[in-house]
Amino acid sequence: xxxxxxxxxxxxxxxDVGEKISVRTIARELGVSEGTAYRAIKEAENQGLxxxxxxxxxxxxxRKRRSNIERLTFAEVVNIVDGHVLGGRAGLHKTLxxxxxxxxxxxxxxxxxxxxxxxxxxxxxxxxxxxxxxxxAVLITGGFDTTEEVKALADELELPVISCSYDTxxxxxxxxxxxYDRLIxxxxxxxxxxxxxxxxxxxxxxxxPVARFHEKVKETGHSRYPVVDDGGKVQGMxxxxxxxxxxxxxxxxxxxxRNPITVTPKTSLASAAHEMVWEGIExxxxxxxxxxxxxVISRQDVIKSLQYMQKQPQVGETIxxxxxxxxxxxxxxxxxxxxxxxxxxxxxxxxxxxxxxxLTGLMTEAAIRILRRHRRGDLVIENLTIYxxxxxxxxxEVELIPRVLEMGRKSAKLELEVFxxxxxxxxxxxxxxxxxx
Length: 437
Fold this sequence. Notes:
single chain, about 425 residues, 4 domains, six-stranded antiparallel β-sheet, 15 helices, about 25% strand, CBS domain, HotDog_dom_sf, DRTGG
Protein backbone atom coordinates (compact mmCIF):
# COMPACT_ATOMS: atom_id res chain seq x y z
CA UNK A 1 0.00 0.00 0.00
CA UNK A 2 1.53 3.36 -1.01
CA UNK A 3 2.35 5.90 1.70
CA UNK A 4 0.79 9.38 1.81
CA UNK A 5 4.05 10.76 0.41
CA UNK A 6 3.95 8.38 -2.56
CA UNK A 7 0.26 9.11 -3.19
CA UNK A 8 0.98 12.83 -3.44
CA UNK A 9 3.88 12.28 -5.86
CA UNK A 10 1.68 10.11 -8.09
CA UNK A 11 -1.05 12.75 -7.99
CA UNK A 12 1.44 15.46 -9.05
CA UNK A 13 2.80 13.26 -11.88
CA UNK A 14 -0.74 12.97 -13.32
CA UNK A 15 -1.30 16.74 -13.43
CA ASP A 16 -1.10 18.56 -16.76
CA VAL A 17 2.09 20.49 -17.50
CA GLY A 18 1.58 24.12 -16.53
CA GLU A 19 -1.07 23.43 -13.86
CA LYS A 20 -0.56 25.35 -10.63
CA ILE A 21 -0.41 23.50 -7.30
CA SER A 22 -0.21 24.59 -3.69
CA VAL A 23 0.26 23.02 -0.28
CA ARG A 24 -3.31 23.91 0.69
CA THR A 25 -4.79 22.44 -2.49
CA ILE A 26 -2.86 19.16 -2.19
CA ALA A 27 -3.81 18.83 1.48
CA ARG A 28 -7.49 19.38 0.70
CA GLU A 29 -7.63 17.13 -2.39
CA LEU A 30 -5.85 14.15 -0.81
CA GLY A 31 -6.90 14.58 2.80
CA VAL A 32 -3.40 14.96 4.25
CA SER A 33 -1.79 17.50 6.55
CA GLU A 34 -0.21 20.63 5.09
CA GLY A 35 3.17 19.54 6.51
CA THR A 36 2.98 16.24 4.58
CA ALA A 37 1.91 18.08 1.42
CA TYR A 38 4.78 20.57 1.76
CA ARG A 39 7.42 17.83 2.13
CA ALA A 40 6.01 15.91 -0.86
CA ILE A 41 6.02 19.05 -3.06
CA LYS A 42 9.67 19.67 -2.12
CA GLU A 43 10.48 16.08 -3.13
CA ALA A 44 8.59 16.61 -6.41
CA GLU A 45 10.72 19.73 -7.01
CA ASN A 46 13.91 17.70 -6.41
CA GLN A 47 12.68 15.16 -8.96
CA GLY A 48 12.02 17.91 -11.53
CA LEU A 49 8.22 17.42 -11.55
CA UNK A 50 7.39 20.95 -10.39
CA UNK A 51 9.09 24.32 -10.41
CA UNK A 52 8.52 27.42 -8.30
CA UNK A 53 8.15 30.41 -10.61
CA UNK A 54 8.55 33.89 -9.14
CA UNK A 55 5.26 35.84 -9.06
CA UNK A 56 3.42 32.78 -10.38
CA UNK A 57 3.75 30.02 -7.79
CA UNK A 58 4.50 26.32 -8.03
CA UNK A 59 3.59 24.75 -11.37
CA UNK A 60 3.77 21.28 -12.87
CA UNK A 61 6.61 21.21 -15.42
CA UNK A 62 7.95 18.73 -17.91
CA ARG A 63 10.79 16.79 -16.35
CA LYS A 64 14.03 17.87 -18.03
CA ARG A 65 15.91 15.03 -19.59
CA ARG A 66 19.67 15.06 -19.20
CA SER A 67 20.10 15.61 -22.93
CA ASN A 68 18.03 18.82 -22.77
CA ILE A 69 19.50 20.30 -19.60
CA GLU A 70 20.94 23.24 -21.55
CA ARG A 71 17.44 24.47 -22.45
CA LEU A 72 16.09 27.31 -20.29
CA THR A 73 12.50 27.94 -19.30
CA PHE A 74 11.04 31.39 -19.90
CA ALA A 75 10.68 31.74 -16.13
CA GLU A 76 14.42 31.25 -15.77
CA VAL A 77 15.01 33.89 -18.45
CA VAL A 78 12.91 36.35 -16.40
CA ASN A 79 15.18 35.79 -13.40
CA ILE A 80 18.40 35.93 -15.45
CA VAL A 81 17.61 39.34 -17.00
CA ASP A 82 15.77 40.69 -13.92
CA GLY A 83 12.72 41.31 -16.09
CA HIS A 84 8.98 41.51 -15.51
CA VAL A 85 6.20 39.74 -17.38
CA LEU A 86 3.82 41.90 -19.45
CA GLY A 87 1.66 39.02 -20.70
CA GLY A 88 1.49 35.27 -21.31
CA ARG A 89 2.32 34.42 -17.69
CA ALA A 90 0.76 30.95 -18.07
CA GLY A 91 3.54 29.97 -20.51
CA LEU A 92 6.50 30.71 -18.23
CA HIS A 93 7.08 26.99 -17.62
CA LYS A 94 7.80 26.36 -21.33
CA THR A 95 11.36 25.96 -22.59
CA LEU A 96 13.01 27.96 -25.36
CA UNK A 97 14.85 26.21 -28.19
CA UNK A 98 16.98 29.21 -29.16
CA UNK A 99 16.93 33.00 -29.02
CA UNK A 100 16.86 35.37 -32.00
CA UNK A 101 18.06 38.99 -31.97
CA UNK A 102 15.68 41.28 -33.87
CA UNK A 103 18.16 43.72 -35.37
CA UNK A 104 17.04 43.59 -39.02
CA UNK A 105 14.06 44.39 -41.20
CA UNK A 106 10.80 42.61 -40.40
CA UNK A 107 10.76 40.40 -43.51
CA UNK A 108 14.34 39.22 -42.94
CA UNK A 109 13.81 38.76 -39.20
CA UNK A 110 10.77 36.51 -39.58
CA UNK A 111 12.78 33.98 -41.58
CA UNK A 112 14.53 33.09 -38.32
CA UNK A 113 11.55 33.19 -35.94
CA UNK A 114 10.08 29.73 -35.23
CA UNK A 115 7.86 28.15 -32.56
CA UNK A 116 9.69 27.79 -29.25
CA UNK A 117 12.08 30.69 -29.97
CA UNK A 118 12.63 33.81 -27.88
CA UNK A 119 12.83 37.01 -29.95
CA UNK A 120 14.96 39.75 -28.33
CA UNK A 121 13.86 43.11 -29.72
CA UNK A 122 13.15 46.72 -28.74
CA UNK A 123 9.89 48.70 -28.92
CA UNK A 124 8.71 47.38 -32.29
CA UNK A 125 5.06 46.58 -31.56
CA UNK A 126 4.30 45.02 -34.95
CA UNK A 127 7.25 42.66 -34.52
CA UNK A 128 5.95 41.67 -31.07
CA UNK A 129 2.57 40.68 -32.51
CA UNK A 130 3.90 38.73 -35.51
CA UNK A 131 6.43 36.90 -33.35
CA UNK A 132 3.68 35.68 -31.01
CA UNK A 133 1.56 34.57 -33.98
CA UNK A 134 4.52 32.49 -35.17
CA UNK A 135 4.74 30.74 -31.78
CA UNK A 136 7.74 32.61 -30.35
CA ALA A 137 7.95 34.47 -27.03
CA VAL A 138 9.23 38.05 -26.89
CA LEU A 139 11.83 39.76 -24.72
CA ILE A 140 11.63 43.59 -24.99
CA THR A 141 14.87 45.37 -24.13
CA GLY A 142 15.42 48.94 -22.93
CA GLY A 143 12.57 48.77 -20.39
CA PHE A 144 9.92 49.44 -23.06
CA ASP A 145 6.26 48.38 -22.81
CA THR A 146 4.04 46.91 -25.52
CA THR A 147 0.43 47.39 -26.65
CA GLU A 148 -2.65 46.01 -24.90
CA GLU A 149 -3.39 44.02 -28.07
CA VAL A 150 -0.02 42.23 -27.83
CA LYS A 151 -0.55 41.53 -24.10
CA ALA A 152 -3.98 40.01 -24.78
CA LEU A 153 -2.56 37.88 -27.60
CA ALA A 154 0.26 36.68 -25.31
CA ASP A 155 -2.29 35.62 -22.66
CA GLU A 156 -4.39 33.83 -25.29
CA LEU A 157 -1.43 31.92 -26.78
CA GLU A 158 0.30 31.39 -23.39
CA LEU A 159 3.54 32.82 -24.75
CA PRO A 160 5.40 35.18 -22.41
CA VAL A 161 6.17 38.79 -23.29
CA ILE A 162 8.97 39.94 -21.00
CA SER A 163 10.42 43.43 -20.52
CA CYS A 164 13.81 44.27 -19.01
CA SER A 165 15.92 47.42 -18.67
CA TYR A 166 19.11 46.04 -20.26
CA ASP A 167 20.16 46.60 -23.87
CA THR A 168 20.00 43.85 -26.49
CA UNK A 169 23.71 42.95 -26.42
CA UNK A 170 23.78 42.66 -22.61
CA UNK A 171 20.63 40.50 -22.55
CA UNK A 172 21.97 38.15 -25.25
CA UNK A 173 25.26 37.81 -23.34
CA UNK A 174 23.46 37.01 -20.07
CA UNK A 175 21.28 34.32 -21.66
CA UNK A 176 24.22 32.86 -23.57
CA UNK A 177 26.23 32.68 -20.33
CA UNK A 178 23.39 30.84 -18.60
CA UNK A 179 23.16 28.28 -21.44
CA TYR A 180 26.95 27.89 -21.38
CA ASP A 181 26.85 27.17 -17.64
CA ARG A 182 24.20 24.51 -18.31
CA LEU A 183 26.49 22.88 -20.88
CA ILE A 184 29.23 22.58 -18.27
CA UNK A 185 26.74 21.04 -15.84
CA UNK A 186 25.70 18.61 -18.56
CA UNK A 187 29.25 17.23 -18.60
CA UNK A 188 29.15 16.45 -14.87
CA UNK A 189 27.77 12.96 -14.40
CA UNK A 190 25.38 12.50 -11.50
CA UNK A 191 24.32 9.31 -9.77
CA UNK A 192 20.87 9.64 -11.37
CA UNK A 193 22.53 9.25 -14.78
CA UNK A 194 23.81 5.81 -13.81
CA UNK A 195 21.01 4.11 -11.90
CA UNK A 196 18.29 2.48 -13.99
CA UNK A 197 14.93 4.03 -13.04
CA UNK A 198 12.94 1.12 -14.45
CA UNK A 199 14.96 -1.52 -12.58
CA UNK A 200 13.89 -2.24 -9.00
CA UNK A 201 16.83 -2.70 -6.63
CA UNK A 202 17.32 -6.04 -4.89
CA UNK A 203 17.24 -5.66 -1.12
CA UNK A 204 16.61 -7.51 2.14
CA UNK A 205 14.41 -6.53 5.07
CA UNK A 206 15.58 -6.16 8.64
CA UNK A 207 13.43 -9.10 9.83
CA UNK A 208 14.48 -11.47 7.01
CA PRO A 209 16.46 -14.57 8.12
CA VAL A 210 20.05 -15.14 6.98
CA ALA A 211 18.66 -17.95 4.81
CA ARG A 212 16.98 -15.27 2.70
CA PHE A 213 20.42 -13.76 2.00
CA HIS A 214 21.65 -17.08 0.59
CA GLU A 215 18.51 -17.32 -1.58
CA LYS A 216 19.20 -13.87 -3.03
CA VAL A 217 22.80 -14.84 -3.80
CA LYS A 218 21.59 -17.85 -5.81
CA GLU A 219 18.97 -15.72 -7.62
CA THR A 220 21.17 -12.75 -8.54
CA GLY A 221 24.79 -13.86 -8.21
CA HIS A 222 25.53 -10.77 -6.08
CA SER A 223 27.03 -10.89 -2.61
CA ARG A 224 25.97 -7.59 -1.00
CA TYR A 225 22.56 -5.97 -0.52
CA PRO A 226 21.00 -2.94 1.18
CA VAL A 227 18.72 -3.68 4.13
CA VAL A 228 15.48 -1.70 4.55
CA ASP A 229 12.69 -1.47 7.13
CA ASP A 230 8.95 -1.80 6.42
CA GLY A 231 8.85 1.81 5.20
CA GLY A 232 11.58 1.22 2.63
CA LYS A 233 14.19 3.26 4.51
CA VAL A 234 17.78 2.02 4.37
CA GLN A 235 18.93 0.70 7.74
CA GLY A 236 22.09 -1.17 6.80
CA MET A 237 24.16 -3.21 4.35
CA UNK A 238 24.81 -6.93 4.47
CA UNK A 239 27.58 -8.83 2.66
CA UNK A 240 28.76 -12.43 2.45
CA UNK A 241 31.41 -11.62 5.05
CA UNK A 242 28.74 -10.47 7.53
CA UNK A 243 26.75 -13.73 7.43
CA UNK A 244 29.67 -16.15 7.69
CA UNK A 245 29.26 -18.39 10.76
CA UNK A 246 25.72 -17.26 11.55
CA UNK A 247 22.72 -19.57 11.78
CA UNK A 248 20.32 -19.49 8.80
CA UNK A 249 17.42 -18.53 11.10
CA UNK A 250 19.15 -15.47 12.58
CA UNK A 251 17.67 -12.10 11.61
CA UNK A 252 19.53 -9.96 9.06
CA UNK A 253 19.21 -7.03 11.47
CA UNK A 254 21.60 -8.78 13.86
CA UNK A 255 24.41 -9.29 11.32
CA UNK A 256 24.17 -6.26 9.02
CA UNK A 257 26.40 -3.17 9.11
CA ARG A 258 24.30 -0.29 10.42
CA ASN A 259 24.18 3.33 9.18
CA PRO A 260 25.83 2.68 5.81
CA ILE A 261 27.17 5.46 3.58
CA THR A 262 24.50 6.47 1.05
CA VAL A 263 24.23 8.88 -1.88
CA THR A 264 21.34 10.75 -3.49
CA PRO A 265 20.48 10.94 -7.21
CA LYS A 266 21.99 14.48 -7.32
CA THR A 267 25.37 13.36 -5.92
CA SER A 268 28.13 13.73 -8.51
CA LEU A 269 29.61 10.48 -9.76
CA ALA A 270 33.10 11.74 -8.86
CA SER A 271 32.03 12.17 -5.20
CA ALA A 272 30.50 8.68 -5.17
CA ALA A 273 33.70 7.27 -6.66
CA HIS A 274 35.80 9.03 -4.02
CA GLU A 275 33.65 7.55 -1.22
CA MET A 276 34.02 4.07 -2.70
CA VAL A 277 37.80 4.32 -3.06
CA TRP A 278 38.37 6.00 0.32
CA GLU A 279 36.09 3.66 2.30
CA GLY A 280 36.79 0.50 0.27
CA ILE A 281 33.09 0.12 -0.65
CA GLU A 282 31.86 -1.92 -3.62
CA UNK A 283 28.18 -0.91 -3.50
CA UNK A 284 26.37 2.30 -2.47
CA UNK A 285 22.61 2.59 -1.80
CA UNK A 286 20.92 5.51 -3.57
CA UNK A 287 18.26 7.16 -1.40
CA UNK A 288 15.88 10.12 -1.44
CA UNK A 289 15.54 12.82 1.23
CA UNK A 290 13.62 10.40 3.48
CA UNK A 291 16.40 7.76 3.09
CA UNK A 292 14.03 5.53 1.11
CA UNK A 293 15.88 3.18 -1.25
CA UNK A 294 15.76 4.22 -4.92
CA UNK A 295 18.50 1.99 -6.30
CA VAL A 296 22.16 1.01 -5.95
CA ILE A 297 25.37 1.81 -7.79
CA SER A 298 28.43 -0.43 -7.86
CA ARG A 299 32.05 0.48 -8.36
CA GLN A 300 31.86 -1.09 -11.83
CA ASP A 301 28.90 1.17 -12.73
CA VAL A 302 30.93 4.23 -11.74
CA ILE A 303 34.06 3.19 -13.61
CA LYS A 304 32.20 2.36 -16.83
CA SER A 305 30.36 5.69 -16.77
CA LEU A 306 33.52 7.73 -16.15
CA GLN A 307 35.29 5.86 -18.95
CA TYR A 308 32.39 6.62 -21.30
CA MET A 309 32.42 10.33 -20.43
CA GLN A 310 36.15 10.60 -21.16
CA LYS A 311 35.41 9.54 -24.75
CA GLN A 312 32.81 12.28 -25.24
CA PRO A 313 33.63 15.69 -26.77
CA GLN A 314 33.99 18.50 -24.25
CA VAL A 315 31.61 21.41 -24.73
CA GLY A 316 32.42 23.89 -22.00
CA GLU A 317 35.39 25.44 -20.22
CA THR A 318 35.68 25.41 -16.45
CA ILE A 319 37.50 28.06 -14.39
CA UNK A 320 40.66 25.90 -14.35
CA UNK A 321 40.56 25.60 -18.15
CA UNK A 322 40.27 29.38 -18.51
CA UNK A 323 43.09 30.36 -16.13
CA UNK A 324 45.40 27.68 -17.56
CA UNK A 325 44.71 28.69 -21.18
CA UNK A 326 47.69 31.06 -21.41
CA UNK A 327 50.22 28.57 -19.99
CA UNK A 328 52.50 26.57 -22.25
CA UNK A 329 54.04 23.23 -21.41
CA UNK A 330 57.83 22.99 -21.79
CA UNK A 331 60.15 20.02 -21.30
CA UNK A 332 63.56 21.15 -19.97
CA UNK A 333 66.84 19.51 -21.09
CA UNK A 334 67.05 17.63 -17.79
CA UNK A 335 63.57 16.16 -18.42
CA UNK A 336 61.70 18.41 -15.97
CA UNK A 337 58.19 19.38 -17.06
CA UNK A 338 57.51 23.11 -16.62
CA UNK A 339 54.33 25.17 -17.17
CA UNK A 340 55.07 28.80 -18.13
CA UNK A 341 52.62 31.67 -18.32
CA UNK A 342 51.84 35.30 -17.48
CA UNK A 343 49.66 36.73 -14.70
CA UNK A 344 46.79 38.40 -16.59
CA UNK A 345 44.39 41.02 -15.15
CA UNK A 346 41.67 38.38 -14.76
CA UNK A 347 44.01 36.35 -12.51
CA UNK A 348 44.77 39.21 -10.10
CA UNK A 349 43.17 40.29 -6.85
CA UNK A 350 42.20 43.83 -5.75
CA UNK A 351 45.88 44.65 -5.01
CA UNK A 352 47.05 43.71 -8.50
CA UNK A 353 48.82 40.52 -7.40
CA UNK A 354 48.18 36.88 -8.33
CA UNK A 355 44.97 35.74 -6.59
CA UNK A 356 45.41 32.91 -4.09
CA UNK A 357 42.35 31.17 -5.53
CA UNK A 358 43.83 31.31 -9.04
CA LEU A 359 47.18 30.05 -7.74
CA THR A 360 45.41 27.08 -6.15
CA GLY A 361 43.63 26.39 -9.43
CA LEU A 362 46.90 26.53 -11.38
CA MET A 363 48.54 24.09 -8.97
CA THR A 364 45.71 21.56 -9.00
CA GLU A 365 45.38 21.71 -12.81
CA ALA A 366 49.14 21.17 -13.25
CA ALA A 367 49.00 18.24 -10.83
CA ILE A 368 46.08 16.63 -12.68
CA ARG A 369 47.86 16.98 -16.04
CA ILE A 370 51.12 15.44 -14.86
CA LEU A 371 49.37 12.58 -13.03
CA ARG A 372 47.40 11.67 -16.15
CA ARG A 373 50.74 11.23 -17.95
CA HIS A 374 51.75 8.61 -15.42
CA ARG A 375 48.41 6.81 -15.25
CA ARG A 376 45.27 7.03 -17.33
CA GLY A 377 42.13 7.44 -15.30
CA ASP A 378 40.26 9.79 -13.01
CA LEU A 379 41.42 11.24 -9.72
CA VAL A 380 40.15 13.37 -6.88
CA ILE A 381 42.32 16.01 -5.16
CA GLU A 382 42.32 15.12 -1.47
CA ASN A 383 44.63 17.67 0.13
CA LEU A 384 46.61 20.77 -0.89
CA THR A 385 48.94 22.39 1.62
CA ILE A 386 50.73 25.63 0.66
CA TYR A 387 53.96 26.20 2.61
CA UNK A 388 55.32 29.33 0.92
CA UNK A 389 53.36 32.25 -0.48
CA UNK A 390 54.83 35.51 -1.79
CA UNK A 391 53.02 38.20 -3.86
CA UNK A 392 53.38 37.99 -7.64
CA UNK A 393 52.65 41.22 -9.54
CA UNK A 394 50.37 41.62 -12.55
CA UNK A 395 51.98 40.82 -15.96
CA UNK A 396 54.72 38.77 -14.27
CA GLU A 397 56.05 35.63 -15.97
CA VAL A 398 55.80 32.57 -13.70
CA GLU A 399 57.01 28.98 -13.95
CA LEU A 400 55.08 26.12 -12.33
CA ILE A 401 57.03 22.91 -11.73
CA PRO A 402 55.16 19.81 -10.46
CA ARG A 403 57.16 16.79 -9.23
CA VAL A 404 55.72 13.37 -8.41
CA LEU A 405 57.06 12.18 -5.05
CA GLU A 406 55.01 9.00 -4.63
CA MET A 407 52.76 7.07 -6.98
CA GLY A 408 50.74 4.17 -5.59
CA ARG A 409 47.85 2.14 -6.91
CA LYS A 410 45.26 4.25 -5.10
CA SER A 411 47.03 7.51 -4.26
CA ALA A 412 49.71 9.93 -5.36
CA LYS A 413 51.74 12.69 -3.72
CA LEU A 414 53.25 15.67 -5.53
CA GLU A 415 55.37 18.71 -4.72
CA LEU A 416 54.58 21.91 -6.63
CA GLU A 417 56.84 24.96 -6.89
CA VAL A 418 56.13 28.33 -8.50
CA PHE A 419 59.04 30.59 -9.59
CA UNK A 420 59.26 34.21 -10.76
CA UNK A 421 62.59 35.50 -12.12
CA UNK A 422 64.28 32.42 -10.68
CA UNK A 423 62.94 33.09 -7.16
CA UNK A 424 60.63 30.69 -5.36
CA UNK A 425 57.30 32.44 -4.70
CA UNK A 426 55.12 29.50 -3.71
CA UNK A 427 55.52 25.87 -2.68
CA UNK A 428 52.85 23.28 -1.95
CA UNK A 429 52.27 19.60 -1.26
CA UNK A 430 49.32 17.85 -2.93
CA UNK A 431 47.82 14.38 -2.47
CA UNK A 432 45.23 12.77 -4.72
CA UNK A 433 43.09 9.63 -4.68
CA UNK A 434 43.17 7.58 -7.88
CA UNK A 435 39.93 6.04 -9.17
CA UNK A 436 40.77 2.54 -10.34
CA UNK A 437 39.94 1.33 -13.82
